[in-house]
Structures are given as C-alpha cells and as structure tokens.
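Task: encode each sequence below as structure tokens.

Item 1
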Amino acid sequence: MMRTHSGMRSLIDATDEKPKITWPLLRRVLHYAGPYRWLIVAILLLILLRAALLLLTPLIIRHMLDRTIPAGDTRQLFLLAAALLLIPGLNGIIGVSQRRLNARVGEGVIYDLRRVLYANLQRMSLRFFTNTQVGEIMSRLNNDVIGAQNAISSTIVGIVTQFVQAAAVVAVMLTLEWRLTLISVIVMPLFLLSARLLGNRLRDIARKQMEANAQMNAMMNETLNIGGALLVKLFGRRQLEIDRFSGRAAQVRDLGVKRAFTGSIFMAIIGLISAVGTALVYGLGGYFVIIGAFTIGTIVAFGSYLGQLYGALQGLSNAPVEFATSMVSFERVFEVIDLPVDIPEVTGAKTLKKVRGEIIFDDVYFSYNNKNDNLLSGVHRYGSMDNVTGVLSGKLAEGGEGEAVPRSQARAYALEAISFRAAPGEIVAIVGPSGAGKTTLTYLIPRLYDPTSGTVRIDGHDLREVTLASLAEHIGMVTQETHLFHDTIRTNLQYASLNVGQKQLEAACRIANIHDFIEELPDGYDTIVGERGFRLSGGEKQRLALARVILKNPRILLLDEATSSLDSKSESLIQDALEKVMADRTNIVIAHRLSTILAADQILVMDRGRIVESGTHETLLAKSGLYTTLYETQFRKDEKGGREETADSRPQTADGRPQTADSRPETADRRQLNLHFSH
C-alpha cells in the first residue's frame, strides 16, 4: 500500500521557499546526535532488516504461484503460508523496537537541547527579557526543540528508510523483469507532477487554516487568562466575546471542511495515477505471460512491489524540504545557545564572602541599548504560520523605571554622572519625579545591567569583578510589582532559602506582619496563592515579599516602597514591617512615604537621570529646590492625613539621638533568624 497520508502531509508542509543547509550546521547537528550514535546505528540496521522482510513477501507469493501450487507440493505450500504469517509478525516486532529506539534518541535530544537552552536563557541579562516576547522564548523551547528532535529521530530516519526501500525494490524488480520495471518508473513523472499541483493548492488551504487557528488561539489566550477574564466580566462583554470566538471558530471549521474535500480529491487523483501504473504493469505483464515471456507469479510480485516503490518515491520527492525545515529548527535553537551574555562573569571573578554593605557609585553613566544585537531574530518557520518577531519592535519593553520603558529612550543617558556613597547600615532614600532614573539606579547594584561608564563598588570591589552568585547572595530586592509563583505560601517563601524550617518561616512572617493572616487561612502556609499571587491583596503580596527577603537575610536591601495603592491598614502594617526589615542593613529605598524619608540617613533627589540634590530632610528643604517642590506636592499629604513626622519624631536611642541603622534594637524574631543564619 502507498503511504498517501504521509505524502499528503509532506506536501502540505512543503514550501516554495527552501531554507539553506550548510555543512557547519550539519556538523553541529551531528554533534548532538553523537551521544546516541550506537542507538542510531541499531536503528539503521533495523531499517535494513525491515526492508529485507518487505521484499520477501512478493517473492514468496511468486514462488507459490509459479512452482509450489503447479507442483502440488502441499508441505512446501504450508511452509510458505506460515512464512507469510511469520513475516508480518517479525516486521511488527522490529517496527516496535525501531520506534522505541527512535523515541530514546528523539527524547534524549529534546532533553539535551532544552537543558542547554534553559541554562543559557537563565544567563541572559534583564535587557534580553525586556526586549523579547515570552511567546517567542516558549516557541524556541517547545516548537523548535521538537522540530530539531524530528530531524534526528523522524525526518532523517524516514529519508533513510524510504531511500533504502526504493533502492531495494528497484533492484529486485530489475532482477525479475527489466521491461516492467521501466514501465513502472515511466509513470512516476506524471504522478509527481499531479501531486505537486494539487499539493500547492492543499498547502495554501492548510496555511489559511493554521492562520485562522493562530487567531483563534490568540483570542483564547487573551480572554481566558485571569486578567482578560476579569476585564470581560467587568465590562459585561461576555456575549461579545462569545460571538467573536464563534466567528473565528467558524472560519476554522469552514477551512477544515475545504481542506478535507481538497484532500480527498488529491488522494483520489493519486489513486487514479497509481492505478494507471498498475494497469500498465498487469496489462503488459499479462500479454508477456500469454506469449510465454514470464509467469503469473512475476506479475503478482510486481504489483506488490509497485505499491512499495510509489510510496517510497513519493516520500523522497519531498524529503529535501522536510529535511531543510527540520534544520531550520536547529538553526533557531542554536541562535539562542550562541547568544552572547550581556552581563559576563570575568575569568577569576572574586567571591564576596562577608559583606559590610558599603556601596559607592563613581561617576556612573548608563544608557539602555536600543540596538537589536544579542537578541533573537525574527522567525520564519518554513511551511508554518508560526512566524513571529523575536524582539518587541515598536512596542514598550517592560523594565527600567518600574514601568514600561521605551526601546528608544527620550534622553541619551538614563543615568548621568551618578556619584554617591552609602555607608554600611545606612538608609539612603531616592526621590524624584517619574522617569528620573530611580529604579534604573537600583538595577545596577545587583548587576541586572552594567554601567555604560563609571564604576559601582561594594566594599571596594568593582561589581564586574565579583561572581554573580555571591553578589545575588548578599543583595535582597523587593520590587514594586511583587511576583509570586502559582504555588503554596511556603514554597514561595522558601525560594529565598531552601532549607529553612517552619520556625524560621514563622519568625520572618511575624517581622513582616503577615503571620497572623496566614494562620487564619484554612490551609495556612500550604495555601495556594494563585497565578502571580492573584488570590492575595496588594498589601498581602508585599508583606510576603518582605518575609521572603528576610529569609534570604541579605546585607544590602533594595526596596521600591510603593504603598500609594494600598488601604491605610495594609500601609500601616507594611510601614511597621519595613522598619524591622531595614534594621542592621544597608538600604537603598525608592521612597514614596514621608516616614521613610525622615528615617533616611541620606536623601538623593533625582531628575532626568541625575542626582540634583542630596542631604537630609531639613537641609534639602532649606535649599528650596526640587525636593521642596516634591515635598509640597507629594509628601505633605502624609501630614494632611494626620501622620506628620519630623526628624525629632523618629524613634530615638537612649541618649536622645534619632535612631539610625546601627542603633536600632533587635527584636526576638530577628534574634531567632540571626541565630539560624549564623550557623
């Protein structure tokens, strides 16, 4: 039987534009197949064995018709009949074994590629993720990796199988009767021409159907995620979305019907052309039998071989496109693997051990890289509608100032001539209008970005000369947008320190003023927080983030203290938690509250990427500059709410001085945590 289904699929997947295959690409592909070379050798041997078995059946039938039956040899007849039963059984066993080996090779390649890809993506800088669509990254990890797996375990194996089968069948046919073999091959051009013409039309329909499917899937993704579902409900657009979805689903349905109808015509014509070849073989073969040129058994054997030959040649006709398409998947995978790291770790980088917490910015300039270098290229997957652009061209990329950052920034430098020193244990408050560069400045400390020029130091060490792992160990950051995994509260907290026990979890949560809330939940610390923590309020998520950073116990704390969207109770709990969290650490705080500003040892006032003023609350007010304007427009609302604070109202030490980082008391919970981490 001819493999018309696989042939139809390959014609659908084919494309007029064929990607290029180079020897360096092939060599690299073979490198990933290298660990499985003995399995591949075994697969090839099984292919040869299966091809030999397929050749035996027509020869046995020929022998039965021409010799055994005319001779009346019943013993030999039963033996040959048993062989006809045994061959399919052996073929099935070999096929199962070959499929198992194919799966081991294919899944092994998938594992190897995904592991390398994921590891390399984890090394990429924040810039890469703010300029790359998540869907494209997922596509590389899924679609392209599977395509690469198919190149090794399916496409190459299929090509070899079809080539071996076609060559073997032609060789046997030539030994039986060269004239019938020539007749069989003469029909092939007509067969291939018709298949190509109908295949082009079928492929166009398939492309439209894939495009319609993509639009339908995009709509489902937009409206069935938690944010989209909430928006639909809030605006009462349920019926509108149902109607929109119905329209797109109907388009998919209609194209599916058209594709099935065209496919049936395609298969009917293929069957008709195949019948022409078969009719010629049996017609001319019958004539040769009549004149005594050869036997009836030879004609029957030729009929069987003819189906095998047409199926193999049909598969081989599209093999170049199928193989090249699979190679494109490897190219896309290798592109990610080969991406250079924006934030490299120098050879012989130092490991930060005990950190005092001194931070120095020395004439730092920083500019967001607006070029597309070191980013993913646009993807054209041949024979597929899964063609997307890798980078967010013309869109806003998330990052920068705690909000969307344009890929083309408004000024030449996001930060200019930034110089300041944060002494160990100090609180440095950063204030300024939106877009001043506050969040960008904090991103340089954990090396989410590197300065364009200038130096950032911790305890005298240039950050570019220390290991990224040790740097991350000593820095804790609480961003304005708290991210929680769709998992339990316990798992989200233990992300900071994998080996902490229940007592340490509870101690950290008490400091963050969230323990009592967790205890009231039905499942306590085993409560699922939902997608991105959506089941929790903003204040609850922020307090969990504070508890998580307490468990990490960093020496340096970076904090975006955004409480403007919280209710007064949540804000009060967070402010109380902040006082405990910031004790005994070096704190860089993007301050939104007057209480934090008054508690700061140093205030940096930023505007358009520069530090325009610095000092304490009183000295800055005396300058009547930008800080005074901010105070009058933003911070004095605390006073109107009855929460006016001054330097004299800050917590004081026993000798009457305002309490600083070095003089804050240690709570019982903090002593318990410090005891845990000291061991």
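Item 2
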Amino acid sequence: MTQVLDGFAALDLHPNILAAVIATGYEEPSAIQLQAIPVILAGHDMIGQAQTGTGKTAAFALPILSRIDVSKRQPQALILAPTRELALQVATAFETYAKQMPGLNVIAVYGGAPMGPQLKAIRNGAQVVVATPGRLVDHLRRDEKVLSTIQHLVLDEADEMLKLGFMDDLEVIFKAMPETRQTVLFSATLPHSIRTIAEKHLRDPKHVRIETKTQTVTAIEQAHLLVHADQKHAAVLRLLEVEEFDALIAFVRTKQATLDLAAVLEARGYKAAALNGDIAQNQRERVIESLKDGRLDIVVATDVAARGLDVPRITHVMNVDMPYDPESYVHRIGRTGRAGRTGRALLLVTPRERRMLQVIERVTGQKVSEVRLPDGQQVLDARIKKLTSSLAPLVADAEASHGELLDRLTAEIGCSPRALAAALLRKATNGQALTLAEVEREQPLVPTSAPRERSERSSERSDRGDSRERRAPVPLAEGRARCRTALGARDGIAAKNLLGAILNEGGLVREAIGRIQVRESFSLVELPEDGLERLLSKLKDTRVGGKPLKLRRYRED
C-alpha cells in the first residue's frame, strides 16, 4: 500500500485532494492519470486520447481541483460533456474528490431541468461547472458574462459532442471565456473536426495517448437487471429469494446506504451487516470473521470498506449501485470467482445508467447479459424448495423420536395429524407467504424492464425550424443534392445530430451542408452534388443515436 500512496503523492496534488483520493480507495494511478496530471498541473493545454473507463475523469479532475482557489466565489473550471448522464457522473466525481475542500461547490448544468436554480448556483459562485453544451448556451443567452471568470476548460469526449451536433454551440462557448484559459481536450478518436478545434482553440498543446487494455473476468457469470432507483431494495429482496448463494457482498455507493440496506435485510431475516469507512478496524475484522465462519451471510459495503476483502465463501457479488468506473466494477466482482472458483455477479441498472453498462462491457470485453426479475411463481418455488431442504434431514428419525408426542397432541387437541402438521408449518414459516396469491400481494413486482427515458439529445436545445414536419421539400439550391435517411423524429433524432455526424465523419465544413429537414419517419439533408457518391461512401458506416445513418440520394418523382 505504501508504494501506491507514493505513486499518488509523487504527482504533487494538493494535500486535501490527495487525502480524498486515498479515502476513495484508488489502488494506484492509472496510465492516463500518471501522464496527464503533471501536464495539467503545470498549466499546459493538452490533448488526451483515451477511452472512457481508463480513469480520465480523475486525470483532469484531480489537477484542476488542486489549482482551484476556494476563497474566490466564482466559476473557475468548466467541464463540457456530451450527455446529461456523463455530466452527472463527472459532477459526482468532482464532489467526491473535493470532500476535503470546504467551500468548494460543483454544479451540473444540463437540459431537462429548471434553468433558474442552475443559473443561480453559477452566479452564487460554484467554482466548478459541469455542463452539456446546449443548455450552457441557453444560459449564455440570459447572461453572456456567466463564463467570464473561467480559467480551466475541459472538453470530455469531444468526438461524441461533435457527433451530437454541438459544433456551433462550442464556438459560442469558446467566445464567452477568457482567451488566457487553460484548455484540455479528451477524445477517444481524433478525426479532422477535432484536430481543427485543437488548432484553433488550444495553445501549443501537449499530447497524451493511452491504449486501453482489455480486462477479463471470465470466471464470473455476469448479469444485469433494469430497475428504477426507488425500487432497488425490493429488487434485491426478490433476487435473494431465488439466488442460491453461500455468502454475498452487496456494493452501494454511500455509508448511509450500507446501513439502510443492511437494516432492510436483517428485518427480512437475513444474517447481514454493514461495512463502511466509519466502522472501526476491530469491528471490521469481526464482520469479516463472521462472514468467513457463517455467522453472517451478507455484507453490504462501499468500495473503500471492501478493499482487500478475500472470503472464500463469497459466491455472489451484487452491485446494488452502479460503480463510478469500469475499474471499480472489475475490482468489485473480483471478490468472487477467486482461485479457480466460479462466481456470479449481478448489476442493478437504472435507465440513466445504461451508458455506463455499455462502457463496462467495452472495457472488460465481455457482454453482461440481461436477466428479468423473478416473478411471483419463481419466488414461491424458491421458498418451497428452501423449506423442503430444511425439513428433509429432520424426517428420517422424526417418527421414532416424536411419534408418540404426535399421537398425544392430536388426541388432546382433537385434530388430524395433517391439521397439526399444517399448524406447525405455519408456526415454523413465521407467517411467510407460501401461496402464489399471497406472494404477489406481499410486494409489487418491480418492472422487468425500465421505460425508455428521454435522451439528452431531445432534452437539449434543438433547431426547431429544421426539425418540424414539412408537407413538401423546399426547392434545392444550385450545386446541391437532396439525400434521405430512414432516421426521423420518432428515433429521437434532431437536425443537429445529423449535422454533427456528417461533419465529423464526412470531413465537410459547415457551409457545405444545406437545409436539414427532420420528419417523423425520415429526414432529408442537402449535400454538395460534386463528389456526392464519394461522400456517401465515406458515410456508409456512420451511426446516429446508435442507429445506421444510411444516407441515399433522394429522387423526387
């Protein structure tokens, strides 16, 4: 562990930031952190080429927080992210790393939420602003000086921002900030459009490039379930009914969540305990020993508290809360499936966390299959199976040892052996629901799949003039050809999404693209007639919103 701390200490981070990093449980600096942190701390502009899941959020958050002046109640750092989900993740990470910095405030600014409180938080002096471009431009229309004190700018996943059509918004944002700012750009790929931004807006940038190593966890069976955030406890209880586990560790994000879930499990009769950073070392050791020897079956833990935990009995890991990054996920599920043993890992995913699930699959190189929450019949079958297993060993010599007592009780009570057995079963099962109707009344079933949430693209500002349905195509300008894609408004597509994808993948300048008309079931785009077939060939594998663009020349017959 000393070597690990030396690795972070050698990066010259602010002591309070270093303390927060250690408390967060990072085991060692990642490759992107080792290379990027010194560059950003030194004040250089930087281009970082790294995939999500390599630790890049900490790579820019830690040095930027180290350079923030908490005494100044004004925005000093702006982080731009392509989606609401990523903006929330980045803001949460900043808050985690800034826990030892009293007076530092972080505000997440994104579409789909009221603008008033966001603007008020910025004006009240939030030093770190994490925003999606479209909503930030909306704020600039209300207050053009809102970014006038920014000293550090980070463009996170810049290539995704351009694919989503934020090029024009980015230009507005650049102009609203001081030219003397430090600018850091992270992108998984560096297409022509990204290089153009770098040449125009970055000053003598340093380059950092990290190749992602695929992590494998092949000994562990992985599955995920889609649930709503407020239904997690109900989902956990249903899963525990049907999963055949010896010992299980459930991961949550906060200390309070460990206490809450452990209390729920204890109330349902499980031998469970919480494990978090507030628990004294001697108590932690007692919990682990109890898990090893069978006095406990479930431990609810945070990432930090579970560090170094190695208990052979653990057959299951349940990620009740989504981890902050893929590395944490791999470390969590590695608590099972050790030393050649098999293990099972379950991940609860809320609708807004689908994106992180995709990142986990990409980084680990493995598919995390979707499973459905157990229905009432499955729960009932599992309960009866457990009851059968507990009673079967007792039957062998029960008649010899308790037969006479049975005869006496049935005579004194005046009932049949069947009636007495049923009464004893009722008492032994302590009122547990053991019919299908009772199980289904006991607690509502959690939906087996989560409803689709409105995407960031639809909650951001869009070009209403281009996206409205039109009855007939507008006459073409000279030198342009009209092309058609089967993607339309019903696919959640806006004009700026198509614009961004074509600019990014086609290598065109903005002026080369004419009118974009988004209709319900398709869209029309005006492109240069000269070299059109070559351009369409370049765009043949382009995807927008996860769906193939498939642009074709539109014939108006």
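Check on item 2: The first strand starts at residue 46 and ends at 49. The longest helix spans residues 376-395.
End of task.
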